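We were asked to recover a plausible sequence for a given structure. The inputs and outputs are reproduced exactly as logged, with field labels preserved.

PROBLEM: sequence recovery
POSITIONS: 375
GIVEN STRUCTURE:
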């Protein structure tokens, strides 16, 4: 079971795409594995034959545990060295009581419910269990009024805990860990999105606002290396590649699909990669490289009508950019009142990696580039 994501401890086998004894080629999908965020296809690491499958669909397996072998034709899988026999159980027998041992006294009978004759009669007529009625009379005696109130009270609703999928549960754990360990701070910037809208219209429907944002943010990250850095737990690690992770909504959670080397990629390449990742993410057909290696995240909720929001950083990244919708605002234009399409950006940063001035300089460069949108 491979570690497909950071801090992953287990993986769940959804299904085997190949069967015992099937010939396989390197890079060919073998199984569907569910991690904390998405279902991924596990690819073969070599040519050979699939043998010795040890885990079935539905099994949750610890990272590093063998789930199958890839062997040469005619070769048998290695013999397991660890014993598969269950550990011996130690049973402590309770000795029989001695003939001279005293017989324990039986528990005293539960005391009778204190209720007035009227209360008893009313309880029988109304079908009220006196054992569940709190008496308000002298000494806790249940009165007729107590019975009447109990009969009118709505029945208690049993708490039904919502069953979380492993994706939702682990996503909750990761976001809690990030929020409670990384010292977040937030910077907000409103920009005139007229140039951004014009740039999208220029490139046609194939290019989205997110594609343009990825291209502009990636180029800004190349000149602000701290914003593209990672926190290792005790030090700052500078990343040589600018890999933009795009937050994509999937069933029961959100997955960060990565566009590698986005600072050097063309807008057409970014757009094609983003469409491919989004389609496969929603179909549960992402591969391990698709969700690994991200150095900065963009989360766009503008399509849901959200004006602005603050996003939680994805460890070990240093920042995430939250993008709201483009909406017409009344603003001053050359000393007059005008209407402009305004876009709100919220930058969440990890104070262990960057300070306020560094984050502000980066956000300013992004805002300037979006205002010009020369793409």
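RECOVERED SEQUENCE:
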């Amino acid at each position: 079971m491979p570690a497909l994501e950071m801090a992953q401890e287990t993986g769940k086998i959804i299904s085997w795409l190949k069967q015992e004894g099937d010939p396989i080629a390197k890079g060919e999908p073998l199984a569907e594995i569910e991690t904390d965020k998405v279902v991924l296809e596990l690819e073969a690491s070599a040519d050979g034959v699939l043998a010795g499958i040890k885990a079935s669909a539905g099994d949750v397996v610890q990272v590093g545990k063998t789930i199958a072998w890839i062997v040469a034709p005619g070769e048998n899988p290695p013999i397991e060295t660890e014993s598969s026999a269950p550990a011996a159980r130690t049973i402590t027998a309770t000795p029989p009581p001695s003939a001279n041992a005293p017989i324990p006294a039986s528990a005293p009978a539960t005391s009778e419910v204190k209720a007035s004759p009227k209360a008893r009669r009313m309880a029988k007529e109304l079908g009220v269990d006196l054992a569940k009625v709190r008496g308000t009379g002298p000494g806790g005696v249940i009165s007729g009024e107590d019975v009447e109130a109990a009969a009118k009270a709505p029945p208690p609703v049993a708490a039904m805990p919502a069953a979380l999928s492993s994706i939702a549960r682990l996503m909750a754990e990761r976001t809690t860990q990030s929020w409670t360990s990384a010292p977040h701070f937030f910077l907000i910037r409103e920009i005139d999105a007229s140039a951004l809208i014009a740039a999208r219209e220029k490139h046609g429907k194939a290019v989205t606002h997110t594609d343009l944002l990825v291209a502009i943010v990636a180029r800004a990250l190349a000149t602000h290396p701290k914003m593209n850095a990672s926190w290792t737990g005790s030090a700052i690690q500078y990343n040589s590649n600018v890999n933009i992770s795009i937050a994509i909504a999937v069933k029961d959670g959100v997955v960060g699909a990565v566009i590698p080397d986005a600072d050097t990629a063309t807008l057409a390449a970014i757009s094609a990669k983003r469409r491919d990742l989004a389609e496969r993410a929603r179909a549960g057909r992402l591969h391990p490289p698709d969700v690994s290696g991200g150095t900065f995240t963009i989360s766009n909720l503008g399509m849901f009508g959200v004006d602005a929001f603050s996003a939680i950083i994805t460890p070990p990244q240093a920042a995430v950019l939250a993008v709201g919708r483009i909406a017409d605002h009344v603003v001053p234009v050359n000393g007059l009142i005008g209407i402009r399409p305004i876009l709100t950006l919220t930058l969440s940063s990890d104070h262990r990696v960057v300070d306020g001035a560094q984050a502000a300089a980066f956000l300013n460069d992004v805002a300037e580039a979006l205002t010009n949108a020369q793409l």
